[in-house]
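User: Hey, my collaborator sent me this sequence without any context and asked if I could get a structure. I don't really work with proteins. Can you help?
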Amino acid sequence: MNNQNVYNNFQNQNVLNQYLINLLNKSNINNQNYINQLKYNNYINQNNNTILSNNINNLNNNMNKNNNINLYSNVNGINNPIIPNNNINVNNPNINNIDYNDNFKMTHSMGNLNHLILQKNANITNSSNRQNNHSLNKQKNQNLNLLSNEELAKQAYYLAKYQNGCRYLQKRIENNQKLVPTLFFPNILGHIQELSNDQFGNYYIKIIIKYLPEDMIYKFIQLIHPSITKIGTNQYGTKVIQNLIDFLTSEKNLLFFIEKTLPHVVDLINDLNGIHIIQRLICIKSNYIQMIYNKIFENVKLISVTRDGSNFIKKLLDFLDEENMVLLINSINENLHDIITNQFGNYIIQNIIKKENLVLKFQVIETIILNIVNFSNQKFSSNVVEKCFEVEEMKDKVIDEIIKGNNFEYILLNEYGNYVIQKALFKSDQNRQHIMFKLLVPIVTRLQSLSFGQKLLSKLFILYPRLSIYILNSEEQL
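Assistant: No problem. I've predicted the 3D structure and written it out in structure-token form, which is a compact way to encode the shape of the chain:
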């Protein structure tokens, strides 16, 4: 069949689209977007032709089975030509305007086919989509305009979960603000959590909150407080709670909200979405916020060992006043072992050591020194011990504790502790280096037997040439 015969067999635009769909289905190129485009064209051009739709679905199941494009396809179990060979030439302007290459080969890449069809149909289809959507939305809004406020409020739960319905509800409320507490709010009392966590429904809840009087805000808090964690940890629900906080203008409502939120503080802080609620809350200037701080201090261990909780505590260290800072540091010190050995909590201690407040960081370092061997020999806490050498006023005291008794040996022979010794050698004065060299000599043999020992010794000999002299002298004495 030559190209001219192919043209003559295109009876209408539907047949053209069907032909191209089969060509696309028979290629190895990913043409799903093109097929979807053609399907839509057939849908709007034909009058409920279910047979053609079924054929298209059957062809989709046979995609990429043949590298060559064939004019014949097995449809519904029968070998039928894709284009009926009836040699009917129809003067269809949509067909005649398409410029085919006379030498077009059926095994050609589908790149040229894209140029042949999509430029012709894409603009028509997109325009039809926009017109259809606009007409549909306009018709829906006209139908909603026929509803009274009472009827619309009864349907609010259903409408709020759809984009256009939610937008229409918001517009109606803006024009009838006084009806919110008496009409719109009562009709969603049993659905606040669901709508708050909904992609579109959360906007409806937020505009409800905006126009509620203070006494109704109090009632709203009563309704949500059992579910505040489920709402606050949701990506949409957290925005509703934050919006509610902005409208806690009375001390009574603020106190009531804080009291109901206290049992959920830890869960909210340890969540990526919930943390923003507590951050928004502590920015309010009120004496009642101290209740939130106290809850945080009591649960600092549970908060510090999570990713979000650790970030929260680090930010809190820059935010608190001096009095609350002391309370927080005391609480951290009481739980230092669990925090400093945690993959997230250790960054809190490092952050404290970097602070300019000498009293507070001295307090933490003193606690570290009391358990220097244990902290030096653990993966995360060893990084904190190394940070202690950066504090000029305390580094000598930390090194003195390391070289006391058998501490040096226990730390040096550990896979993590040896890095602490290396940092200590680098930061110590000559007298303390001399002491550490002497302590190192008796355990060189044991160190060489460890997997990291040879590398460590080579590094130390390069950095400290005097160390090799100590070892040689000790061997001569023996």
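In plain terms: Residues 415 and 452 are 7 Å apart (CA to CA). You can pass these tokens on to your collaborator as they are.
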